[in-house]
């Protein structure tokens, strides 16, 4: 359950951080992950329940098979007894005929009755033998189905274990990355840079004062130095993808260049991404620029200090989920 929550939170936060087209793509991938995980959990529960049911049926059939065999043995014994009686009567009949002490007609009737009873017992015996054979066939079918479900259950268990192993590895890598970034960027802490870890992601937050002049999108030298220092670490961490989010305060802006705060946040994110790819050596495939405008504040107060906190760039580093997707698609 903790793993499921972790995957869900990773994908929800990832989906919340991307532009519309990327959001839809990541959201679809999230839904696929969640559906597949739910399907795995449901199939695992069903398989375990089915396994227990089949075991109970197997025990019941074994008891029924033993009862039928016992009944068959009793019927065979009765049949042998009746047959022996028939043979004795037949012998007596011959003796009686010879001695003429009993009428031939009575003896024939008694003989026919015994033959009828013997035939009835033979029919009952054949019917029970046929039922026993059918029970044995049903037992083998259930045993085969039980083995199939057991193998499928083991396969799914191995799949879940592999998913858990990969998630633990990515969690450990994320913790290590956060520690590395905190150490390497420590000198920029007083300039408005902070590093934190939330929901399986590492957030590097840079205040506006470190990167931009008011109302501008070109990055200052001090901010560029911090970004390039950040890139030194991220170039080595090829198993992580990156999202750059621009954030503004709630004071409206409208100029010849900026339609609104959203425009400003997107263009600032794009400026940061260009530095990280053109000068920082980050592969452009790994990075996504995104503008959040004033809609995700860290402080909702209407004070000067709160608005200053909200004007920021957040570089979000998160594990690449391609390996997890391959396992879920098997």
Describe the structure.
It contains eight helices and five strands; from the N terminus they run H-H-H-E-E-H-H-E-H-E-H-E-H. The protein has 330 residues and is α+β, with helices and mostly antiparallel strands. The chain folds into two domains: 2-175, Helix Hairpins (Orthogonal Bundle); 185-329, 60s Ribosomal Protein L30, Chain: A, CATH 3.30.1330.60. Strands 1-2-5-3-4 form a five-stranded mixed β-sheet. It starts with a helix and ends with a helix.
What tags apply to this protein structure?
single chain; 330 residues; alpha+beta; Helix Hairpins; 60s Ribosomal Protein L30, Chain: A; five-stranded mixed sheet; 8 helices; 5 strands
Ordered list of secondary-structure elements with their pairings:
Blueprint: H1 2-16, H2 20-99, H3 104-184, E1 193-198, E2 201-207, H4 208-211, H5 221-234, E3 240-247, H6 261-279, E4 287-293, H7 304-310, E5 312-319, H8 322-329
Parallel strand pairs: 3-4
Antiparallel strand pairs: 1-2, 2-5, 3-5
Helix pairs in contact: 1-2, 2-3, 3-8, 5-6
What's the quick description here?
With 330 residues, this protein is of the alpha+beta class. It contains 8 helices and 5 strands. The model has no long low-confidence stretch (mean pLDDT 84).
Any idea how many domains? 2
CATH architecture of the largest domain: Orthogonal Bundle
Low-confidence stretches: none
**Assigned CATH class of the largest domain:** Mainly Alpha
* CATH fold-level name of the largest domain: Helix Hairpins
- Helix % is 55-70%
Extended strand count: 5
C-alpha termini separation? 22 Å
Give the class from helix and strand content and strand pairing. Answer: alpha+beta
Strand content: 5-15%
Whole-number mean pLDDT: 84
Overall shape: it is rod-shaped
Largest sheet: 5 strands, mixed
SSE series: HHHEEHHEHEHEH
Number of helices: 8
